[in-house]
Structures are given as C-alpha cells and as structure tokens.
TrEMBL record:
Function: Nucleoside triphosphate pyrophosphatase that hydrolyzes dTTP and UTP. May have a dual role in cell division arrest and in preventing the incorporation of modified nucleotides into cellular nucleic acids.
Organism: Parasphingorhabdus litoris
Gene3D superfamilies: 3.90.950.10
Key words of the record: Cytoplasm, Hydrolase, Nucleotide metabolism
Record-marked site positions (Important for substrate specificity): R8, T66, Q149
Organism classification: Bacteria, Pseudomonadati, Pseudomonadota, Alphaproteobacteria, Sphingomonadales
Protein name per its UniProtKB record: dTTP/UTP pyrophosphatase
Origin superkingdom: Bacteria
Length: 190
C-alpha cells in the first residue's frame, strides 16, 4: 500500500517493480513545529503519514515526504506564483538540501524509516528565467517551488546525492527498507 497521492512516488516505486495494491492519501497537519530542524521535520512527516493511513494486518505500507531546506529554513510546496518567486530568488546561485524520508511498515507492524539528504546547487537566475519558470506551472505544488525532473534540471550546476530522492522517493533507501521488511523484490535488484 502507498500512503501518498503523488504520481511521482508511484512512478518511482514502479522502477523497483512495485505496484501498490492500494493508494491512500494521508490527511495530517504538515505544519513544522517551532524550532524543528528540516531533517527532524521530514522524518516526522514520513512517520505520521504512515501512521495516518489504515493498514490491513498483512499489508506492507510505504509513506514518504520530501522537503527543500536552505539552512534551517524549510521550503514547503509553492502554493502560488508569489511564493514560488520567493523560493526561486532564495535558491538562486545557492546550494540547498532536498531531504526525502521514507517510512515502511512491514506486514508484522514494524515501522522503519530512512532519510536521503541531497545537495543541489542552482545557477544564479535572471528575473526572466524565474518569470518563464513560474509561467510553465511546473513548480506549483512542489517542495521548494521546482521539479528537478523537468525544466528546472537545466538550472542545476551540481547535485550530490539521490536523484530519485530529489524527485520524491529515494529508491536505494526504499529498496532496502522493503527488503528488511520482508517484501519480495526480484533477484535482479528490483
């Protein structure tokens, strides 16, 4: 079972040969706690999303969360053009972290959580580039106001970490959690 409405997470799970039998969208309060560090926040979100969805006794459940962080500041999903512009201006020419946490609850009810922390550096943006990217609509509703797997990839100077984690589900960590939870994956690595 996948506790996420994200089409990207479904697509990424498919790369592991996993097709969820059920998909449910967890309904939780995603407000960061006062003084909560980005790492702690994203791990808590993955765990809370996993706990918020009803799971059958023999079902393996996967939940995840992804954030963009600049220092201690958490950049949530860009909800409008003004917020996306603010995020893009903040990320311009800077390194930032994209953190993805995944929580897997095994059939026996054991919950395991892992974190992927990737560092991305964007080029310095011209105002016209920000305008064009906002007009594309691609970054709306995305953490940090951008989608790495789309037009924003052309802004990347460097990446250190997991590309799939930046997209929303770190495959290495997810695969290892599924294996340790007893989920049967193919012998060829997927």
């Amino acid at each position: 079972m996948l506790a996420s409405s994200s089409p990207r997470r479904r697509e990424l799970l498919g790369r592991l040969g996993v097709a969820p039998d059920r998909i449910a969208s967890p309904d939780i309060d995603e407000t960061p706690k006062k003084g909560e560090l980005p790492r702690d926040y994203v791990l808590r979100m993955a765990r809370e999303k996993a706990a918020a969805v009803e799971r059958a006794d023999d079902e393996v459940l996967i939940a995840g969360d992804t954030i963009v962080a600049v220092g201690r500041r958490i950049l949530g999903k860009a909800e409008n053009d003004a917020e996306q512009r603010q995020y893009m201006e903040l990320l311009s020419g800077r390194r930032h972290h994209t953190m993805s946490a995944v929580c897997v609850i095994a059939a026996d009810g054991t919950a395991r959580t892992k974190l992927s922390d990737s560092i991305i550096k964007f080029k310095r943006f011209q105002n016209s580039e920000i305008d064009a990217y906002i007009q594309s609509g691609e970054g709306q509703g995305k953490a940090g106001g951008y989608a790495i797997q789309g037009l924003a990839e052309a802004f990347v100077i460097s990446i250190s970490g997991s590309f799939s984690g930046i997209m929303g589900l770190p495959l290495y960590e997810t695969r290892n959690l599924l294996i340790s939870s007893g989920y049967p994956l193919n012998q060829n690595g997927a």
